[in-house]
Amino acid sequence: MNVSGLVWAATLVALTAVLLVDLFIIGRRPHEPSVRESSLWVAFYVGLALLFGVGLWLTAGGSVAGQFYTGWLTEYSLSVDNLFVFMIIMARFAVPRPYQQKVLLIGIVLALVMRGGFIAAGAALINQFTWVFYIFGAFLIYTAINLARQGESAEEDEFRENVLIRWSRRALPISRGYDGARLTARQNGRRMFTPMLIVMIAIGTTDLIFALDSIPAIFGITHEPYLVFTANVFALMGLRQLYFLLGGLLDRLIFLSYGLAVVLGFIGVKLILEALAENNLSFLNGGEPISWAPHIPIWLSLLVIVATLGIATAASLAKSSRDRRRELAEVRH
């Protein structure tokens, strides 16, 4: 896939314009969006991603569009997993609901910047060293095993205050309460940071950790930097509104970690098989490609991902409904 500089520029301008509109809405009126508002925005962003895929289909063919849709769905699922941690951070630091939109938007911007850097680095590594697929694949399998071990309690154990957050608490003058969505406030004639700064640090470091998972995953689906970048951007767009739309539903997706573990494990195996098929490591098969390594087509990858996430979601909602009915029955008796 040969993407011209003009197409790159046009894409960046269009996506930046959409992001600025979102930023203007929050800056104009910080508020907690209603279900209707959140639904319309999520539908708008999902529709944009689907239309972008159709455009790729018409201009570059079905294979390219399939890679985009598979990558977008994978990244979107991982982004939903991000929301679990964002929800815990918001609760941990008692961020007022009207100002959570700003926190989420800044978190999304930070994620875009970090993922952009990782995408550039990953593309450069892949062009120079094909053996990096072994590292990516092993890392995804390791991540998948950890997710499976965490299981239903993943969202409870996933956030811990890191070294940077603890240092910030000790070294910086932090006020006791929030001052709207501001990062600084004046108290007793002294300029101080508000707890909002600590929240931003927590969100930023969390974004960094999730970027380390998501970038190898998308490179396991497509090696095209343009598709990797656009799939990530579209997966992050609308995440703010999705946070408020799902609300308590996030707590009910108890098997999502298992589903994501299967997806990441599958992509990790796919990456290793691709590395074997293009092998040039001298100590493995004499530096020659391994002919028996099967190629997993993009349609099969999309089918596995959709089926896995669908089953995990359905099973989560079914178990949550059963548990809720059981609790109501115990209360009545």
What does this 3D model show about the protein?
There is one protein chain. 75% of the residues lie in helices and 2% in strands. The model has no long low-confidence stretch (mean pLDDT 82). Helix 7 (163-171) packs antiparallel against helix 8. The radius of gyration is 21 Å and the shape is globular. By secondary structure, the chain is an all-alpha fold. Strands 1-2 form a two-stranded antiparallel sheet.
What percent of residues adopt helix (DSSP H or I)? over 70%
Q: What fraction strand?
A: under 5%
The oligomerization state is single chain
C-alpha-based Rg, rounded: 21 Å
Main sheet overview: 2 strands, antiparallel
Shape: globular
Residue windows where pLDDT falls under 50 for at least 5 positions: none
What topology, given as strand order, has the largest sheet?
1-2
Kindly report the average pLDDT value. 82
Q: What's the SSE blueprint?
A:
Blueprint: H1 5-28, H2 35-60, H3 62-92, H4 97-128, H5 132-150, H6 154-157, H7 163-171, E1 184-187, E2 190-193, H8 195-219, H9 225-236, H10 239-246, H11 249-252, H12 256-277, H13 298-332
Antiparallel strand pairs: 1-2
Helix pairs in contact: 2-3, 2-10, 3-8, 3-9, 3-12, 3-13, 4-8, 4-9, 5-12, 7-8, 12-13
Structure at a glance:
The chain has 333 residues and is mostly helical. It is built from 13 helices and two strands, in the order H-H-H-H-H-H-H-E-E-H-H-H-H-H-H.
